Structures are given as structure tokens and as C-alpha cells.
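Q: Please design a sequence for this.
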């Protein structure tokens, strides 16, 4: 059994929390763009409250542990591991609740190269507990605006986890999956479920637009977010996202394995 103390040490050692790779400059740019309601940073959340840049900094200081001083403009960001552990416990509680009622779930990631294994383990455990792990709209095209312009992507599933690929990408694993912040994949998946008349997910698990897009539509959503992803934390503050775990979302994929063991143990689910 992995204790919270051992996991805290791992978070710091792997730089999932503590001093992380995400730069202060990158985070401040995201906060500024969020305050300007740039859709690239809103990633599916339509804020109800007025969020200036200082408001966003204050929220991120409270939820993540980053510096609350707007004059601190350079260096690496910092995530408080205590906040990560508290959020992981809340995350595990939501998984346990879904498992107890055998709820249908939808799982998706915009970070397939880093986080696929983490989510796939959750999918396996929830499926073993009787949850239907939904895979709607597989193969459907999704047009996503990227820095290179509008690009068509294909919605796919690997081990029960949704991701998008660019057309022509070969392979069945995560290697050809594309990084995206867009909420369009989850909107496409949820629309397909509704069209088919099947059971809608009672819990959506993921990151980026998967969490924000689902939460904005009224679905219970939980996920992971870095210090430069303020939309998820705003969604949590405004009550549309249930749980957000603050951590670096782009370290080596094997560094997330202790987190998998921890949340599944806390949720009383077998891996």
C-alpha cells in the first residue's frame, strides 16, 4: 500500500509537484489569455464570473500553490504537493462513488503520450467494478483549430480511453495520438451517445477540453491539470468541474504509476 507520505515524496522527486517544469512565463500568459476570454485557453468553459488576470493568479495560488505575487514573472512554477494529495483523495472518492453505482463513464485525454496508461488503468478498474466504459463516435472526424490552422482529426479509443489522431496516422497505440486542448472531441462523443439513445456518462474523466467541455454541458467531470491550465480550476471554482488535481501533466508516463496505485487503493478498486 502506497502511503500519502510516500506519494508526497514521489511527487516531489518526479517533479509532478514542488518545482515543476512549467514556466511562470507560460502560466502568466495563460492567465492573461483566460482573462481576455481567448477560446484557446477557455477550452470549453464559459465563465459566469468576471475573471481578471489578478483573479486568476489568486485562484491558481489557492488551488495549486503557485506564487500569488503578480510581480513574480519568471522561473519555474511551484505546485504544493499537499494540495495535490487532497485533490487525489477527492478524485478517488468520485471513482469509488461511480463504481458503487456501476455508473457509465467516459474517459479521454489530450495528453495521450503521457497520460494514457494512467487513464487506461482507471478504465480497467472501473470496468471490472461493473461500470460501462463508453467509446462513442469512434472513427468520427473532428475539425480542431491548431497553431497550423484548422485540421481534421479522428476520434479513436485505446484501452477504453479516447484520444484524437491526425488522418493517416498509423498504429493502434498512443504514439500517433495528438496533443490537444480542444473541447470538440468530448462534445462529439457526448452528442453521439445522445444520438444513439444510449446511457449517458455519469462521470467524465480526463484533462484539458475533455473535462471543461463535459463540465460546461452539465456532466460530472474530474481530471488533472497543470499550472498553465486555469480553465479547469475556474470550472471547479464555479461548480461545473467536480475535482481538479494540480500536477505537472507532461512528465514521463511511468511517473504516474504510483498515482494510479494510490487512487485505486483509496477508491477500493483493484488495478
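A: Design:
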Amino acid at each position: 500500500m502506497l502511503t500519502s507520505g510516500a506519494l508526497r515524496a514521489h511527487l516531489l522527486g518526479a517533479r509532478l509537484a514542488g518545482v515543476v517544469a512549467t514556466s511562470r512565463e507560460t502560466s502568466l500568459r495563460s492567465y492573461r489569455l483566460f482573462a481576455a476570454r481567448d477560446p484557446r485557453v477557455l477550452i470549453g468553459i464559459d465563465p459566469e464570473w468576471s475573471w481578471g488576470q489578478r483573479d486568476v493568479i489568486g485562484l491558481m495560488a489557492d488551488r495549486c500553490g503557485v506564487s500569488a505575487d503578480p510581480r513574480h514573472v519568471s522561473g519555474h512554477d511551484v505546485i504544493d504537493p499537499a494540495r495535490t494529495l487532497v485533490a487525489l483523495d477527492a478524485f478517488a472518492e468520485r471513482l469509488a462513488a461511480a463504481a458503487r453505482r456501476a455508473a457509465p463513464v467516459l474517459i479521454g485525454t489530450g495528453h495521450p503520450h503521457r497520460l494514457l496508461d494512467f487513464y487506461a488503468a482507471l478504465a480497467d478498474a472501473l470496468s471490472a467494478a461493473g461500470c460501462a466504459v463508453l467509446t462513442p463516435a469512434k472513427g468520427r472526424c473532428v475539425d480542431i483549430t491548431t497553431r497550423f490552422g484548422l485540421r481534421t482529426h479522428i476520434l479513436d479509443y485505446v484501452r477504453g480511453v479516447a484520444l484524437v489522431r491526425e488522418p493517416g496516422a498509423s498504429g493502434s497505440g498512443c504514439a500517433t495520438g495528438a496533443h490537444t486542448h480542444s473541447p470538440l472531441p468530448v462534445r462529439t462523443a457526448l452528442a453521439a451517445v445522445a444520438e444513439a439513445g444510449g446511457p449517458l456518462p455519469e462521470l467524465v474523466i480526463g484533462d484539458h477540453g475533455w473535462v471543461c467541455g463535459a463540465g460546461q454541458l452539465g456532466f460530472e467531470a474530474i481530471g488533472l491539470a497543470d499550472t498553465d491550465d486555469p480553465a479547469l480550476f475556474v470550472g471547479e471554482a464555479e461548480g461545473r468541474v467536480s475535482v481538479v488535481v494540480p500536477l505537472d501533466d507532461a512528465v514521463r508516463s511511468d511517473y504516474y504509476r504510483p498515482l494510479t496505485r494510490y487512487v485505486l487503493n483509496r477508491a477500493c478498486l483493484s488495478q
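Q: Thanks. Anything notable?
A: The two ends are 12 Å apart (CA to CA). The mean pLDDT is 95.
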